[in-house]
Amino acid sequence: MNAESRPATLACHPWVAHVAIVTEVRSEIDSVATFRMRFRDPEIARQYRFLPGQFNMLYLPSCGESAISHSGPPENSGEDFWHTIRFVGRVTDSIAKLKVGDQLGVRGPFGSAWPLDACRGRDVIIMSGGLGLAPLRPMIYALIAQRESYGRVVLLHGARTPDTILYPEEISQWRDHGIEVELTVDRASNEWDGNVGVVPLLLDRLSNVRPSETEVVTCGPEIMMHYSAVSALGRGIPETSIWMSMERNMQCAAGLCGHCQWGPWFVCKDGPVFRYDTIRSLLKVRDL
Amino acid sequence: MIAVRPKLAVIKFASCDGCQLSLLSLEDELLTIARAVQISHFAEASSRLEPGPYDLTLVEGSITTPEDRHRLKKLREDSKLLITIGACATSGGVQALRNFASHDDFMRAVYARPDFIETLATSTPIAAHVKVDFELRGCPIDKHQLLEVIASLLAGHRPRTSTESVCQACKRRGNVCVVVAQNLPCLGPVTHSGCGAICPTYDRGCYGCFGPTVQPNTVALSDHLLSGRVNESEAAMLMHGINAYAPEFATEGQRLWQLAGLPKTLHSSLQPARHEEPSA
Amino acid sequence: MTSATESQESNAAVVWLPRAIFQAFLDLLSADGYQIIGPRIEQGAIVYAPLERVEDLPLGWTDEQGPGLYRLKKRADEAAFGYVVGPHSWKRFLFPPQTDLMRSKQTDEGWDMSPVEPADDKYAFLGVRACELAAMEVQDRVFMTPMFTDELYQRRRSQSLIIAVNCTSAAPTCFCTSMNSGPKCHKGFDLALTELTGGFVVEIGSELGRRFTDRLMLVPVTTQREQDAAAAQQQAVDQITRTLDREHVQSTLKNRLNHKRWDEVAEKCLSCANCTMVCPTCFCSSVDDVTNLVDEEVIRQRHWDSCFNFDFSHISGGPVRDQTRSRYRQWLTHKLTHWVDQFGTSGCVGCGRCIAWCPVGIDLTEEARILCEDPAVPEEGQP
User: Fold this and answer.
1) What ipTM is given for this predicted complex?
2) At how many degrees (to 10) do helices A168-176 and A133-145 cross?
């Protein structure tokens, strides 16, 4: 998507954060929680808009910043916005300690969005692995909000184990909203009678795929996205209908600091969502 | 992570006390530290020494005697967080040169009655004996890094120190490279930053007091040093200085001593282990 | 000073600045509120630093350069600009090594977060070479994009007076002719000097520049001096021996990502980041918090960083570029080819600093040549 149709990033100064207040903390799976937050300044809260797939920089003074995708409903703009966060680093470990009423800095939104326009009137296959479901959830909300505007919608989601499947209650609700859901795990438990194996296998086995009528969006570990694309191509879906969200180190989020470079791209502003044909050759190069 | 007014201890082993002095030389911040923590044990600052347990223990010095080895084990049990400060505690210090030579020869050369001396044949870092929560490099440590560590722990964040080379800090400071412009031997390219590039600022080569950086290309650097700057034993001495027993410097120094025809091998009880950064 | 051959037009674009009134020119800059930054000898090299007097300049000195080598040498004359380029570049002033960006203060309502207003520095850059003008234009495209603008950069850039100097000699490390960036200054300056015995041929590049030449009542240059200046400039062109096949490298290097040469150069490369620190276009930075013990006030501080730093590409799974091989590859491919995709221009201006200031003398032109000459390399890697 081009930059012009993106919502404006708050303030013209790309480095300055705005204060937000945590309004709710919801524990998800182990070491993962969803934080709902709202800008302290009502005027900023009112102005703020984001698109599914975009991210914010969350800032804890004296600790640092971390790039976190939006995981809440995009139509909530002006109210709370949500971030589902895994506690895996210096900053996110400290975010884990935030309670309702605590404050943090937020810059954003940054980056490219999922291709909702390209999906309109077409089938959508959503492929996610682990926490990769979080950046896709705003897209799922958007699809549900205008369910009639899209064709068949399928979510193929994989997790390491049954108890690490993100948003389990919501996933059942999504089924009620006309989304087909297939789940798989790497390692089954005693109670699990579903699929075992990697996400791309779900696509390999999916019936009635209409390759020329389908868009595939995928988010998860890089290797999982790579093989999801391979699987999609194997089903005859063209490269230009496959989209993935990349992870790289992001500091400025505005293409000024250089950290997120990946071949010709700045993942922070050219991505994180890329169309597969623009990155296919890069995915094949180790340590790029 | 730490309760209000956590108890701080500063404990030394085999060392010169210089790193503890860095804490005292935090003149402007010292009162704030004293308000933020309860200084329970800091022999260099106060004769009032309280027993453990401590919330935050700063450990200076290396382990060179059986008694210290025992004392360290007990200290670890008494410490919630244990942070090593300085080259001695982190890599064994300059006294770890004994690890490459005969300890008995040294004792006989130095002491009239070596039989009175009870000491280990080696000088080893704290992490060789107990779990270390964070390591601060340097000889001595940089007081700003020390402050960052204390401030982070008090705020409940994991501390952060950069893994960049000395060169980056050197060039940010506006220094002219002493290798290129003055042909001086300098360990800056393979040395962990943190000092603010003090030595090159005063027209001297870096002597590696902050120890090896991540993935130091010591072989390429010493090949370059040997091309007309220094001879093999001079290059070896450069590697085997303050951080001689830091694994990458230990290995490269041994290679250079070999080239110089004066092979120096590690004491039989030691295996150079790969140095791991203690935090992400 | 006048002769029959001189044009009498007052708006002539080329005038003569006698060395005798060069100090008056510098005084005029200071009087107009400019801090003059120019070449000075420090730490055995010609660096860019504040100066006020003609005597502050490296009069009678030049530089001798090669891969991993830089030495000051005495010249036979008293030329002020008789050197090539040194370890510093102007990015030190436009994109400072360390900058405060944002301040967070604890208040009764919680955090108050506000930008740190950039200092209102007004610089006169004296002695900017053609390759350095090109480097400024390269960084303009990085820091002043339609989407985001770096305020400090923009402010300093727009307020700076640029007094360029045409090179009259070249170092063995120079290859600006390959990068179409020199050695003659064509645009992007307020005034451009060519040093001759007794003074400077001055090209006027802007109305701001003309204000100074008018106030100094400089008269149009003689044809003879104009010819002497052209000859001096040609001397620099003639001395350039190093080349880089710019267009070939731009189109080829991006298809050489799995070349064995990356492993070979990694054996020599120290990953020390010196090349990126001295490069006039490298713009990578990191941001850290500077705090006091009680967290009452926290400053977000930006400092120069480098793609050669192990942690630079760190993500939750560890650094993406976890070997020197991949870090050198990132630097070279970005500089010579991906930069073109990103900003429509090469990231290299051919100044040769990365060659001279690499402690082990790795030569970017040589690496690019080797990487791009061998077509018989399998290029399909494994994910």
Assistant:
1) 0.92
2) 30
